[in-house]
From TrEMBL:
<keyword id="KW-0472">Membrane</keyword>
<keyword id="KW-0812">Transmembrane</keyword>
<feature type="transmembrane region" description="Helical">
    <location>
        <begin position="27"/>
        <end position="47"/>
    </location>
</feature>
<feature type="domain" description="EamA">
    <location>
        <begin position="28"/>
        <end position="164"/>
    </location>
</feature>
<dbReference type="InterPro" id="IPR037185">
    <property type="entry name" value="EmrE-like"/>
</dbReference>
<feature type="transmembrane region" description="Helical">
    <location>
        <begin position="211"/>
        <end position="232"/>
    </location>
</feature>
<feature type="domain" description="EamA">
    <location>
        <begin position="184"/>
        <end position="320"/>
    </location>
</feature>
<feature type="transmembrane region" description="Helical">
    <location>
        <begin position="121"/>
        <end position="142"/>
    </location>
</feature>
<dbReference type="GO" id="GO:0016020">
    <property type="term" value="C:membrane"/>
</dbReference>
<dbReference type="InterPro" id="IPR000620">
    <property type="entry name" value="EamA_dom"/>
</dbReference>
<feature type="transmembrane region" description="Helical">
    <location>
        <begin position="301"/>
        <end position="321"/>
    </location>
</feature>
<protein>
    <submittedName>
        <fullName>EamA family transporter</fullName>
    </submittedName>
</protein>
<feature type="transmembrane region" description="Helical">
    <location>
        <begin position="59"/>
        <end position="80"/>
    </location>
</feature>
<feature type="transmembrane region" description="Helical">
    <location>
        <begin position="86"/>
        <end position="109"/>
    </location>
</feature>
<feature type="transmembrane region" description="Helical">
    <location>
        <begin position="272"/>
        <end position="294"/>
    </location>
</feature>
<keyword id="KW-1133">Transmembrane helix</keyword>
<feature type="transmembrane region" description="Helical">
    <location>
        <begin position="148"/>
        <end position="168"/>
    </location>
</feature>
């Protein structure tokens, strides 16, 4: 009786071996990027559910504390002390600035927007952060625009126009253009803040600090800054430490931490052109998950919302893979 040869004993040419490694790394990158997109989408839904009866201040604080609690232990395990040697003055300041912009300002604006207009309308606008990141990269890093960049930017702007149209239609014909613009200001502030975050992160990474230590500084700085903000406003006393909505905030904190770690891990094993298209699926995932999981009174999913999400996803993917 003939027995098949074990796979380990079958000779493999160097080219075939390289192809197998490439395929496995690409598949792992796609899987991690998809996990990242699901994590970021989960953040939107958890915040929407938690802030129905809860407060945005509570949501931001709990999410930040979850980020710190989940990120610090891996840092302590993977890196030997003294941990101060992981940073330079430039990298520490850069990641701190990224934390203030992307984890403090952006989250306050984004969570308030989710509470005000919902996750479905907020997520496509926030996803336009790649447009602002491109503008900042051209201005501050001297990068050049390509035809693919411009195509993506046009699609993003078209998606934002559709969101504006749907917001105006859903909030009533009696509202002025200025009132609709004020409604959309919060997610735009979040998009701008997230857009400038990579500029600071790039500076920190270029100065020799690894991704995980950098994210820890980002989360820690954002948390300290937010607690200081609460202290100045004397609102730290009213932060709720229990209640059913706190579970949703913790869920949002876990989801966004998983999203960050999966996103950066994907970039470590696969090219940007493979990772970013899957990561940009977040707005579409928010729409789908809202239909499946959220009560109808919380989220209204229209064809215009779906169209806006599609336009922004395609445009953001074009901008990302061309950069």
């Amino acid at each position: 009786m003939l027995h098949p040869r074990p796979l380990a004993s079958i000779p493999t040419t160097p080219a075939l071996a390289g192809l197998e490694v490439g395929l496995s790394e690409s598949a792992l990158g796609i899987a991690l990027a998809t996990v990242g997109a699901v994590g970021f989408a989960g953040q939107f839904l958890c915040v929407r559910l938690g802030t129905e009866d809860g407060d945005v201040i509570d949501a931001v604080l709990v999410v930040l504390l979850c980020n710190v609690a989940l990120l610090v232990p891996p840092l302590l395990v993977l890196y030997p002390p003294p941990y101060v040697d992981l940073y330079t003055p430039v990298s520490a300041l850069s990641f701190a600035a990224a934390g203030v912009a992307g984890m403090f300002v952006a989250r306050v604006a984004m969570f308030r927007s989710i509470k005000a207009i919902g996750a479905n309308l907020t997520s496509p606008i926030v996803a336009s952060n790649v447009f602002f990141a491109t503008v900042f990269a051209v201005v501050f890093l001297g990068e050049r625009l390509t035809g693919v960049h411009l195509t993506g930017i046009v699609l993003i702007v078209a998606g934002l126009a559709v969101v504006s149209w749907d917001t105006a239609a859903s909030t009533g014909p009696d509202r002025s253009l200025r009132e609709v613009g004020a409604t959309l200001l919060l997610p735009l502030v979040a998009a701008v803040s997230i857009g400038i975050e990579p500029i600071f992160v790039s500076i920190g990474l270029a100065d020799g600090t690894a991704v995980l230590p950098g994210i820890v500084v980002m989360a820690g700085t954002a948390t300290v800054g937010f607690v200081g903000y609460l202290g100045v406003g004397e609102s730290v006393r009213r932060v709720r430490r229990s209640g059913p909505e706190v579970r949703w905030y913790v869920g949002a904190g876990v989801a966004t931490t998983v999203g960050f770690l999966a996103y950066f891990a994907a970039l470590e094993v696969a090219p940007v052109v493979i990772v970013m298209p899957f990561l940009q699926l977040t707005p579409l995932l928010v729409v789908v998950l809202s239909v499946l999981l959220l009560p109808s009174h919380l989220e209204r999913v229209s064809l215009r919302v779906v169209a806006a999400a599609v336009l922004v996803v395609i445009g953001a993917t074009f901008v990302s893979i061309s950069g």
